[in-house]
């Protein structure tokens, strides 16, 4: 809801636990709840904005007003829910095909038609080689400056500059090949070449009833 022009594909799992008629019933129920949730959010934002604009000293709430107006302008496209049985390989392939079909839709993703300079592909291929190399630790973390020096060792990337690399990393972050939190001061100089490592860490740290589990340890 906070990402500008975001596209969301709801996925319903455990279809194998439902009767065929239940699947469609649940699909309709979920989509109706999502629609209601978005309408409520829009109404709440409008209400908060009206309250700030109608306050006795609105100049004190300019920052809050601007944040709310920014959130109000974020459009959210919800695609039709895809129901899958995760134990069925055919259903997984069906989900994959659906995702690819949507991603190639120029109306949903105008960036699809953007032509990237050859250096983007060259850096991407070089980073994949580094990520798969034996030298890289399992966590896949690498200092940005060290990554630049490693890439510069490639003959066709000898003139690669830090600024261009950062532009390329922003693109690779968006497509999910790497993770680079440039907006976080303590992480801006670190590139995660193995995003799956972060997923594993989050699964360990962010989990259901974590506090209760920790408290149960003597």
Please describe what this structure looks like:
With 218 residues, the chain is mostly helical. The protein folds into two domains: 7-104, no CATH class; 118-201, Winged helix-like DNA-binding domain superfamily/Winged helix DNA-binding domain (Arc Repressor Mutant, subunit A), CATH 1.10.10.10. The protein is 53% helix and 7% strand. It has helices spanning 20-53, 62-73, 89-103, 118-132, 144-152, 162-175, 195-205, 210-215; strands at residues 6-8, 11-12, 76-78, 82-83, 141-143, 190-192. The strands form three sheets. Strands 1-3 form a two-stranded parallel ribbon. A two-stranded parallel ribbon has the order 2-4. The protein has a two-stranded antiparallel sheet with strand order 5-6. The chain is globular, with a radius of gyration of 23 Å. The two termini are 41 Å apart. The relative contact order is 0.09. The mean pLDDT is 88.
